[in-house]
């Protein structure tokens, strides 16, 4: 695909849409995106999409250099739609985002087209319903979240290895690094390396945050 063809697709989309290159920089930004985010194309193009969207979900910040969606795009894996809060012209609002991967001529990393739709009111109602069910039943919060959820989080795009999933499940059970090393027959250094890879992939700053993101995304 030629870059101009990619831009034509973005411009012809009725919903807010923008295209991002392999480095995470915006290369196309349509009029609906300008209206939704309150940023004109001339201001958006050339900037990192996370710098404009400042995205987050229920587990915290999602827009960063370790963006899980960009990791999936770089790996040429299909990206399912997800919900996130972003900075819009009306403040922080919930959006549902769909992502398509595009191969552009003479580039090494794939580009991606993001299509965003406002869902602030339905999402808030969903969260209120979930909180009500948790308070009125004995069901665990994560089980209720899996039942009452319109879409998973951006972290659901993360691809963990079998060993990383195994380590993460043990961490979620409160097992220490030393105990994990003994149980799996590997060194503690190897366990810590797996943990660092998990933190990077899940865009998390601590083990607790990684566990929370993984549970929210249905990874464990």
Would you kindly provide a written description of the structure presented here, covering whatever features stand out?
It is globular and about 55 Å long. It has two domains: 3-120, Beta-Lactamase; 123-217, Rossmann fold, CATH 3.40.50. The chain has helices at residues 3-11, 31-37, 41-44, 49-53, 68-74, 120-136, 141-147, 162-172, 177-184, 188-201, 207-217, and strands at residues 16-20, 26-29, 56-57, 60-61, 82-88, 91-102, 111-118. Helix content is 45%, strand content 18%. Helix 8 crosses helix 10 (188-201), helix 8 crosses helix 11 (207-217) and helix 9 (177-184) packs across helix 10 (188-201). With 220 residues, the chain is an alpha+beta fold. The model has no long low-confidence stretch (mean pLDDT 87). It has a five-stranded antiparallel sheet. It has a two-stranded antiparallel sheet with strand order 3-4. The protein is built from eleven helices and seven strands.
Summarize the structure in short.
The chain has 220 residues and is α+β, with helices and mostly antiparallel strands. The protein contains eleven helices and seven strands.
Describe the SSE topology:
Elements: H1 3-11, E1 16-20, E2 26-29, H2 31-37, H3 41-44, H4 49-53, E3 56-57, E4 60-61, H5 68-74, E5 82-88, E6 91-102, E7 111-118, H6 120-136, H7 141-147, H8 162-172, H9 177-184, H10 188-201, H11 207-217
Antiparallel strand pairs: 1-2, 1-7, 3-4, 5-6, 6-7
Helix pairs in contact: 8-10, 8-11, 9-10
């Amino acid at each position: 695909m030629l870059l101009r063809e990619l831009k034509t697709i973005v411009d012809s989309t009725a919903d807010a849409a923008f295209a991002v290159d392999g480095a995470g920089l915006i290369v196309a930004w349509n009029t609906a995106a300008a209206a939704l985010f309150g940023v004109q194309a001339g201001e958006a193009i050339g900037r990192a999409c996370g710098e404009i969207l400042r995205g987050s979900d229920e587990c915290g910040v999602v827009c960063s250099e370790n963006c899980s969606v960009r990791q999936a795009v770089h790996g040429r894996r299909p990206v399912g739609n997800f919900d996130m809060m972003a900075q819009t012209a009306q403040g922080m609002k919930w959006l549902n985002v769909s992502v398509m991967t595009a191969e552009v001529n003479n580039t090494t990393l794939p580009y991606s087209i993001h299509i965003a739709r406002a869902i602030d009111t339905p999402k808030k109602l969903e969260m209120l319903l979930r909180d009500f069910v948790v308070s009125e039943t004995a069901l665990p919060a994560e089980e209720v979240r899996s039942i009452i959820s319109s879409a998973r989080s951006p972290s659901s795009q993360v691809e963990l290895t079998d060993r990383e999933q195994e380590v993460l499940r043990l961490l979620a059970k409160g097992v220490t690094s030393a105990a994990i090393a003994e149980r799996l027959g590997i060194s503690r250094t190897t366990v810590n390396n797996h943990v660092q890879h998990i933190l990077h992939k899940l865009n998390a700053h601590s083990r607790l945050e990684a566990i929370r993101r993984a549970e929210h995304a249905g990874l464990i």
